[in-house]
């Protein structure tokens, strides 16, 4: 379980996160949703320690992550897998090397063992015969899947996904959502997903946190979100003509 | 302006402290150093050889045309060519050229990695990105640049000799005598000390600008330019300081 306790973060004069407290549960897809500029990416980056928080705490199963030094954070970071919005695959490495990279850095596995693990992770995200391709040769959906494969290479306890299906067609987006959900349940991972895609919310939102103007505005799940009477949340959820008609 | 300068100096020193932290897995870093020697060093052999040969030739011809009195012996051409090449041309001018080539490559590579979140990805994995990305580059360039500069000296002197015999301005015997005349091995040590310092400055300053890039493609270009300009300025300033320290 990951817990954000009264987290605040400013950039200069601009307060981006204002006293956000939220709990992200194990074996569940925890979604952070909100409009562009609402602070959800900043919240995720504060959770993983890419941004230093001004106030509050971030705890990983009771371990106060936000107060740790860089070297202390390393221990927890080896339990974290993260999929970035653009994939963030290393351009100079092929797919296989990208997935084997954390294994090479932190394990003493032989090349054969690492290859086996990379192949397993690739099969887990339903990709085959792409081992020797470079990121520039992959489609958007393939990059996202390779990013997931790299994120799960070290058997993480915590998985973070930043906009996993942005820029993808609805079918591929659905495949990515289902993959994340399957992996979360199969390996009992605490998964935190940053999205503004309503399809993902309805599909995999075991727990949903709605961030609005830097504050945690609403919490619930995929069943309660459509019945909420929160006006700001409803404005976000039913923003399109299609969703309004469906409602 | 002073505040901005001090801010960058402070952040540069902090980054260097990160860079020289103990690496996570030494075998990986040794491999990375080899890769960077290939990317940043061996890749520059052609341009260094080409420029050095032609500059040596020009130096020799210019000296020959400027000596128009029979009281100055012809071997002076070889002597002055050697001294110019060893003391200044190869260590400083070639380092400035490498600041353009290597510096822009380092800054744009790191800048692109920053804006595409690859540096964040390395940090999330639990690796110190400053050490992983910048340390091997510094070591590679510090190791390979003295070899490149030594090669540059040889090529420039050869270029001077070729120009001398092809134009008929200096006979080989006079040129070779001049090359060997009044030779002080300390000159080579002085040149190589400068080279090592310049190599460090090129990669660390360009790396600094690349590492802290913010924004997108435009900012990557700006970081690359800043890396080249600032490392060139640093080379010029440190050239004066080192010359004063080592030759006075």
Automatic annotation (TrEMBL), chain B:
<protein>
    <submittedName>
        <fullName>ABC-type transporter Mla maintaining outer membrane lipid asymmetry, permease component MlaE</fullName>
    </submittedName>
</protein>
<dbReference type="InterPro" id="IPR030802">
    <property type="entry name" value="Permease_MalE"/>
</dbReference>
<feature type="transmembrane region" description="Helical">
    <location>
        <begin position="138"/>
        <end position="167"/>
    </location>
</feature>
<dbReference type="Pfam" id="PF02405">
    <property type="entry name" value="MlaE"/>
</dbReference>
<feature type="transmembrane region" description="Helical">
    <location>
        <begin position="40"/>
        <end position="65"/>
    </location>
</feature>
<keyword id="KW-0472">Membrane</keyword>
<keyword id="KW-1133">Transmembrane helix</keyword>
<feature type="transmembrane region" description="Helical">
    <location>
        <begin position="228"/>
        <end position="247"/>
    </location>
</feature>
<keyword id="KW-0812">Transmembrane</keyword>
<dbReference type="GO" id="GO:0005548">
    <property type="term" value="F:phospholipid transporter activity"/>
</dbReference>
<feature type="transmembrane region" description="Helical">
    <location>
        <begin position="188"/>
        <end position="208"/>
    </location>
</feature>
<dbReference type="GO" id="GO:0043190">
    <property type="term" value="C:ATP-binding cassette (ABC) transporter complex"/>
</dbReference>
